[in-house]
Amino acid sequence: MTDKFDIHAFWNDVMNQNKETLPSYFWEDAVIRWHCTNEQFNVSEYIRANCEYPGCWEGELERIEEAGNLIIAAGHVLPMDHSASFHVVSFLKIRDGKIQEMDEYWADDEEAPQWRRNMKIGIPIR
To answer: Do 72 and 61 form a contact (C-beta atoms < 8 A)?
Structure first.
């Protein structure tokens, strides 16, 4: 059960690159994977990658689903100047209120490719 884990507080600390509080969300031996760039991190490496990522960030959780000890969260992330836009889907395996494993899939938001626009199918989500 994931009821002891606060996904909203975790998300806010990730967005704020809060290196003081982020370790408290993880088991010491937790594993974090960023599949789109083929990287696996331990907790300290993940916190360093997140907190030293250039710039200041904002974002919102767009969807949260829970299944047993798994939280699935989809979020929208932007630099403060809105010069780019990203979406992330995170799978957090929770044990006793802390992250044991986290698998994330990051994507740059961009326009549909020209070949698909030429088909004149679909409509914008937003």
So the answer is: no
**Pairwise CA distance, residues 19 & 93, whole Å:** 21
> Among 46, 111, 49, 104, which Cα is nearest to 85's?
111
What confidence tens digit (pLDDT) does each residue in 4-43 have?
899 999 999 999 999 999 999 999 999 999 999 999 999 9
Could you tell me if residue 118 is inside a domain? no
DSSP helix/strand/coil, 1: coil
**CA 40 – CA 12 distance, rounded (Å):** 22
The count of structural domains within the chain is 1
Look at the pTM and tell me if it is higher than 0.70: yes
3-state secondary structure of 85: coil
How remote is the C-alpha of 80 from its chain's centroid? Answer: 17
Range of the domain at 32: 7-111
Concatenate the DSSP letters of all residues of 71-106 into one string: EEEEEEEEETT-S--EEEEEEEEEETTEEEEEEEEE
